[in-house]
Design a protein that fits this description.
Strand content: under 5%
Largest sheet: 2 strands, antiparallel
CATH superfamily: Ferritin, core subunit, four-helix bundle
CATH topology: Ferritin
Number of strands: 2
Strand order of the largest sheet: 1-2
CATH architecture: Up-down Bundle
Radius of gyration: 16 Å
Oligomer: single chain
CATH class: Mainly Alpha
Distance between the termini: 35 Å
Mean pLDDT: 92
Shape: elongated
Number of domains: 1
Helix content: over 70%
Number of helices: 5
Low-confidence stretches: none
Length: 142
Amino acid sequence: MRLQTASSVISLARELEGESAKFYEDLAQRFAEGEDTFLSFAKENRKYIVQIERAYYGVITDAIEGCFAFDIESDDYAIETALAEKTGYSDALSQAIEMEETVVKFYTDAAEQSKSLMADVPRAFMLIVRKRNDRLAKLRSL
C-alpha cells in the first residue's frame, strides 16, 4: 500500500516497532542465552513508539498532514517476525538482523522524504536509525 501522509507513515512505524518488539519477546522466551538483550530491545522498541509519536504530535498541523510529505510503499518494509518451530539460535539472529536492516531502511527513507517539511519527525527517525545501527552491531556480535 502506498503511504503518503504523515499519519499513515507514523502508523507504519508504530506497527513495525510493535511487531519487532513482539519478535524480541519471543526470542527472549526461546533463547535464554540472549534473554536480557532481547528483552531490552523490546523495551527500546516501545520507547521508540513514544518518541516518534511525541515528535509527530508536537509539530503536526493540517497543513503538514495534507501536503503528502511521503511516498512510501509499505510492502517494501514488510518484516518477518514469526519463528519456525525448529529455528535455531543462529538462524533467529539472522532473522533479527534482516528485520533490523529493513526497519533501518524504512526510517532512513521516511526521514529523507520528510526533512524538507518537518524537522522534529525526521530527526526522531534518524535518532532511531543510529540506535538501531548500534543494535545491529550487537546482534552481529552474538
